[in-house]
Amino acid sequence: MPIFIKLFGDLRKKVDPNISGTTSLRFEINDAEVERIEDLLKKLNFAENEVSHKFVNGRYVGLKKKIHDGDKVTLFPRNMALLYKWYFTREEDE
Asked: What's the pTM value of the predicted model, to 2 decimals?
């Protein structure tokens, strides 16, 4: 079963340099080695400091959050940082 990915801003341009406009980039991956958010960032060749906010199934999460088949992961770049860290508790699995 896949993991569904949604990228915004500069992150989507790293995956698809030819993308234009302001819509998000959506795709799915099937990789048994992707167990946590940090694994996904490595697979996509994103440095940790490039990603400001991470969500799994609409919940604000950290790098150690586990990802399961069928999960929806949304990533925002540093230049689109929001105020979530002041208003929401970040979920971690460790």
From this structure: 0.86
- DSSP letter for each residue of 37-77: HHHHHHHTT--GGGEEEEEETTEEE-TT-B--TT-EEEEEE
CB atoms within 10 A of CB 20: 7
Which CATH topology does 3-87 take? Ubiquitin-like (UB roll) (3.10.20)
Q: pLDDT of the chain along its 94 residues, tens only?
A: 699 999 998 999 899 888 888 889 999 999 889 999 999 999 999 999 999 899 999 999 999 999 999 999 999 998 887 666 666 677 777 6
